[in-house]
Amino acid sequence: MADSPNCDLKSLSPLQLFERVTEQGEKVRALKAGKAPKDEIDAAVRMLLSLKLSYKTATGQDYQAGLPPRDLTLINNGTTKEEDEDFVDPWTVQTSNAKGVDYDKLIVRFGSSKIDTDLINRIERATGQKPHRFLRRGIFFSHRDMDQILDAYENKKSFYLYTGRGPSSQAMHVGHLIPFIFTKWLQEVFDVPLVIQLTDDEKYLWKDLTTEKAYEYAKENAKDIIACGFDVNKTFIFSDLDYLGTSTGFYKNIVKVQKHVTFNQVKGIFGFTDSDCIGKISFPAIQAAPSFSSSFPQIFNGKENIQCLIPCAIDQDPYFRMTRDVAPRIGQPKPALLHSVFFPALQGAQTKMSASDPNSSIFLTDTPKQIKTKINKHAFSGGRDTIEEHRKYGGNCDVDVSFMYLTFFLEDDDRLEQLKQAYTSGELLTGELKKVLIETLQPLIAAHQERRKQVTDEMVKQFMTPRKLAFEF
Length: 473
Known about the structure:
The chain is α/β, with parallel strands linked by helices. It contains 21 helices and eleven strands. The chain folds into three domains: about 15-60, Orthogonal Bundle (Helix Hairpins); about 100-345 and about 455-465, HUPs (Rossmann fold, 3-Layer(aba) Sandwich); about 370-455, Tyrosyl-Transfer RNA Synthetase, CATH 1.10.240.
């Protein structure tokens, strides 16, 4: 960051101010460690104190390293509004708006950057490939440091991908496919290694599961992930319950993160209480560790400077805000992130789906008949109460779940726009729109089920065995 105090700090959100203070603190430490001239150190310290004062003015609290401010949306004159605000954390997503979470506000609250046309065009130039529909349609809408990833790639420097899955049930639903569909595209167009973390330890700690059942779910979910078409020579899938005990590099990074994050900080970031078990409190360090290449010595030959790019839903961002704060203090590069929107439940976009509610989504195990019944019976409609009203006033694509699902799974942009115009004008009825979705999802899920049948236990073992991948480091 620049040292100039002339920048308009009042325009920054509390989280952006927090990150500015953190970066300036790192600069001060680096100057002192490098024995820089005293006047240079003094100027950096003055800037740090000024930033801390701005942070306290904006938030009403002193800066604490590793403890970002609670999410608030600044409105007129710096006042805050808590009524009708969206609530997002790694376990809960709630909004009172039928359109779903306000992602523009979420970008401000989380202090990330919007994926704009310029960035999408740059990705297209770098890869020589048409941007994925998830980029074209704003499904992946926010990022941290994607420009740095592209800088590295354009300068022939490698990076790697990291994403994950919390195996809370044997069957995954279509919403779970979103990060894997996009990650597969990223891996193919950039040709980089991929690590996939199965957090069976997390599910044991949070759910009423035995360790044996959590590990069984991990292996079953791995089959669905493999069925997405990942290359075994370029992809390592691992279970925390399995891999953590075999990798010294992975555990060393966990311990380093744990040393630099206090109990008070994880309470502030994740809302833990004194009644939570110590396993929950220490888990964020386990999700942080795959962000560092030294956690996978068999892949990266022990190198610690390979940057990581993490495609994930934005509810996972608190884990990686913590990770990005800690990374420079343990000598590691900060991971970059690409954030997706939430996949809505069939009943509406006010919440994300639950694997424990069979009617909240379409599952990858559903039959064609089940898919048809669920969509017709449970998919929230943006249509009018009567056919006459619908023909006259048209439907609302912003709240219609069938149309939302089509934005995820219908590849043809022109066809999607035609459906939007026809539904909005009243030409297309709700039942007809649902029929299009049914005809889109039935063959997609049937094809996935067929690929999954071909995934054997031996294939799962291959993907989950620590090994060198088809890259040289």
